[in-house]
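Q: Hi! Curious about what carnitine O-palmitoyltransferase looks like structurally. Here's the sequence.
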Amino acid sequence: MAEAHQAVAFQFTVTPDGIDLRLSHEALKQIYLSGLRSWKKKFARLRNSFITGVYPASPSSWLFVVIAIMGTMYARVDPSMGMIGKIKEHLPVSGYLSHQGQSIISALLFSTALWFALIMTMRYILKQLLSYHGWMYEQHGKMSATTKLWLALVKIFSGRQPMLYSYQASLPRLPVPKIKDTMQRYLESVRPLMNDEEYKRMTGLAKDFEAKLAPKLQWYLKLKSWWASNYVSDWWEEYIYLRGRGPIMVNSNYYAMDFLYVTPTPIQAARAGNTVHALLLYRRKLSREELKPSRVPGSIIPLCSSQWERTFNTTRIPGEETDTIQHFSDSKHIVVYHKGRFFKVWVYHGGRLLNPKELEIQFQHILDDTGPPLLGEEKLAALTAGDRTTWAKARKAYFRSGKNLQSLDLIERAAFFVTLDDSEQGLRTEDPVNSLDSYAKSLLHGKCYDRWFDKSFSFMIFPNGKVGLNAEHSWADAPIIGHMWESMLATDCFQLGYNNEGHCKGQADATLPLPQRLQWEISDECQEVIHDSLKVAQALADDVDFHTFPFKDFGKGLIKKCKTSPDAFIQIALQLAHYRDKGKFCLTYEASMTRLFREGRTETVRSCTIESSNFVKAMLDASKTNEDRLKLFRCAAEKHQLLYRNAMTGAGIDRHLFCLYVVSKYLGVDSPFLKEVLSEPWRLSTSQTPIQQVADDGYGVSYIIVGENLINFHVSCKFSSHETDSHRFGTNIRQALLDILSLFKLDKK
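A: Let's find out. The predicted structure is below.
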């Protein structure tokens, strides 16, 4: 009952002598500190908004402009060409000011207007500079005079000490490609997948669409591009993610792994204390906009940072027809799941963040709690793993009031969701294959009821000290989570650390409130819905054939010696592996970012090209020499790099076609061409994000380049498909990488 007493700020009793009022000083102190923290955050946001609003200038530059104007006036020079005098004539308070006072006020107003005009001019020039993408198409290691001049101008107009969102207003808008260009690129992309008759038919559909319906759809799309910040992103979020009615577990959510070969501490509560504290430190930097703006690696070119905004305090809310994303500006607690029970844990006390030691004690208290789950509580989160419409109806029917509403609200408002898992995971040297496969599946779906799949991310800590993460996909793409994840791991190991016994460092406040159990009243009808959702989710999870393996033979260090892009090298190897695995080529998805533009997300690189197909055929043709194969490989690599650059600079295929299709639906017109294009299955889906949605008879492949000598692969498919086998495909990937490297005759040492 200690928590209940601390939660009450005052008590009173009516007696014959009057009212006996008893104040709780501790509770009043916490209310004061909480309010103080809230006002500090509001002030910080206001200050940051102002600094970002005047970027690339700085607030101090206003003073410089004012002093310069005042100085010229005292030198009897009018830099305003009479405008200060005009302002002086029309001052509404001129009758209350002296002649000198009127001059000063007029000069201040003119200086401020001039300052804003300079800001808008600098911002416009920077936006025009950032619209130039010729630098991306230049040969690696060589830079033209034009690009050198352009870089110098970007540095000049980029301002100094930018904050996280400083560049947002200066980023260009995503351009709408020409219909003719998209049609030509599309037909080229499907040529290796079709025979002559199929290709001739598709060419006819494309030409008919280009001539008749496309111009009308394109006009609406250009109108949107002039009005909206990004003509793709809002429709992409809504129609690809939020309107999907199937489970988001496995199909959409993705995961992140811990270090494979290092475990900082084997103590579950201690690892939880440090890592949760590290995540909260990251959140504080994010809310203060202290994170550096994202840039193209190794350059000064800024990328859009808008996706960072919803990293924390965010939940996907189910709807019967479409979901919504609910984001809160702040949250002072997290929700923890352990052995079927939900707990609320405060992460602030006395106006400060709980330190790692205090969080360790909180988590240890939960681990030591032996109380059983309430009726229906243990598998409640399965609702977030099943069909979205089922979850939406259940939410409306059984979580509208009382304890259920309060507890659900606590989960959805939490900074993030934490699971203290009860199964050990991670790489075991005695059984590396099965242990990594099990680890990946645990992060991807767990038991289907021990992660809250609607949260922006669920964070898992295992009994042996390993950690992992499951992220919801609609609010942002993988690089955003990746940045947070890398920062958390670095902070945990290199900044916070552990003592000699493996516990968190520091001292704990003994007066901290303990974790509170969330209360539920789950009816029999609701339990039946939970059971049905779990059945759907379990069937989906059981069908996932997953293989995770580290490729240690070589990495990007050796690939660079081949004078080719590591990404192109791996993508062409995947084409070779897939052809050996299935004996045919397929439509291939590779994710590329479009964050060079405001609110940009992703574009598709169609990695199966005429050039890569020619190379693969040559590898299987005994009459071809290695010199022939190497020449074809270089052609394929150059083509892939061109497609990747096109995708990054807004000249991709699939987002344009997708938006044309959305416009056609709004107008109520049907296009046989668009309908066929958007129904084509991706039978090989690749990216540097673990798991992507793929056809039932296809493969999903994620590869993460770790340092110079290691590439981690994650291969997924379905047991229900007789055409696929994740371990077989993994073997083919290994062999393809080695076979391509052998063409270069390099000494691996």
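A: A fun detail: Confidence is low (pLDDT under 50) at residues 1-10.
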